[in-house]
Structure prediction request, 238 residues.
Amino acid sequence: MQRLYVPYSDAVAARICEELDRGRTLQEICRSEGMPASATVQRWARENIGGFRDRYRKSAHPIGRQSEYSRAIADRVCDGLYEGRTLRDICAGEGMPAAATILNWMKADLDGFGARYREARDAGYMLIADDILDIADDGRNDWVARRGAGGKDMPVLDREAVRRSRLRVMARCWLLSRMLPRMFGHRVSHEASVDPNQSLREVMRQIDGRTSHWNSSGAGEASAKEGACCPHCGGKLS
Prediction:
C-alpha cells in the first residue's frame, strides 16, 4: 500500500523530536500511523523547514539518543520479562522507552541492570517452556463438527489448527535450545528432533515436510472417523 504524503507541521515535528528523545529510531517512528516517511523527515531537516534542522539535530544522534536511565522503568522491564513477555511487547507500553534503549542500559550495566535483565530473561524462558506443555495439551480446537452423509454432524480433525499448534511448539523449542542450551539443548535435540545449530528457517522446513502429507492423504479425516490415533506419535488427538 502506498504511503500517503504527510506535509510538514509543527505538531508532527514536535512528535518526532519527542519520540527521538525517548530513544526510538527514526525508522520506528515513521512506521507509526500518520507519520511521514523517514526520507521526508530528513529532507525537512536538510532544508530547515520551519526551523526543524536544529531541533532534529538536538534530538537525533548517530546511534540513537539514549533515554535517561530510570530505576522505575528498569523494574517494569524486569517484571515483564519475568512474566515471559517479549521486550518489544513491554516497550510498546505507554511511557516506555524503545527496546534499543533498554538494551543499551543492559550492555552498560547501569545500576546493575545487566544482571537483573539476564536473570529476568532466563526466568521468562522457563514460562515459555510451560507454554509448550499448555499448547500441546490443549486439544479444544483440534476437532470441528462437519455435516456428513445423512445430515449428521461428525467430528473432523482440523488439520490447520493442529499444524499451527505444532508450529508454535517447535518455534518455542528452537528458541529455548538457543537461549538455554545447557537446560534444553540436549533434550530438545533428541526428543523433539531440533538441532540447536539449525536455523529457524530449517526447523520450519522440517515442520512443513512432516505435516504436508496431512493435506493430501486424508489422514485427518480417517483418524476422525475411526477415532484413531495421531499419525505422528500414535497418541489420541483429543
Observations:
- Confidence is low (pLDDT under 50) at residues 62-66, 187-191, 213-238.
- Residues 21 and 59 are 5 Å apart (CA to CA).
- Residues 138-226 form one domain.
- The chain is about 60% helix and 5% strand.
